[in-house]
Specification:
This protein is an alpha+beta fold. It is built from three helices and nine strands. The strands form two sheets. A six-stranded mixed β-sheet has the order 1-2-3-7-4-5, covered by helices on one side.
Length: 132
């Protein structure tokens, strides 16, 4: 079996993975937090971007963090409790407290990453392609 091919340190390393990461008032996960993050199939949820107040509320109801970061959808997207925020990832955005935010980050495999400063609440998109 595949499991027999990868023994010892490799399996120990992968066993240390967690389905999400919590840092200060932020939750980071591959998909929205209402999904069962221990279910591998849940990581491939095909229900679309959380583009309605109902979908966004479902994520806010699933956790207490003020800012929820996900990936999965391979695009930039921000919503708060009032609805979708007009933002395309072309410039930094401040995620002002006490508002709660659901943020979808563009994909690293498409040349994107971002830095979030928890003190200033500034999310700065970074194009890895421009840095070559």
């Amino acid at each position: 079996t595949r499991r027999q091919r990868f023994v010892g340190p490799i399996l120990d390393y992968f066993a240390s993975y967690q389905p999400f990461l919590e840092i200060e008032d932020c939750l980071l996960s591959h998909v929205e937090p209402w999904r069962d993050l221990n279910d591998v199939m849940g990581l491939w949820y095909l229900g679309g971007i959380p583009d309605s107040t109902e979908k966004v509320a479902r994520s806010f109801d699933a956790c207490q963090q003020r800012v929820i970061f996900t990936g999965h959808h391979h695009r930039w997207f921000v919503a708060n409790q009032q609805g979708i925020v007009a933002w395309d990832g072309s410039a930094p955005i401040r995620l002002e407290a006490p508002e709660r935010y659901l943020v979808v980050l563009a994909a690293v495999c498409e040349g994107w990453c971002a830095v979030y400063d928890t003190q200033s609440a500034l999310l700065t998109p970074i194009s890895l392609r421009e840095r070559r």
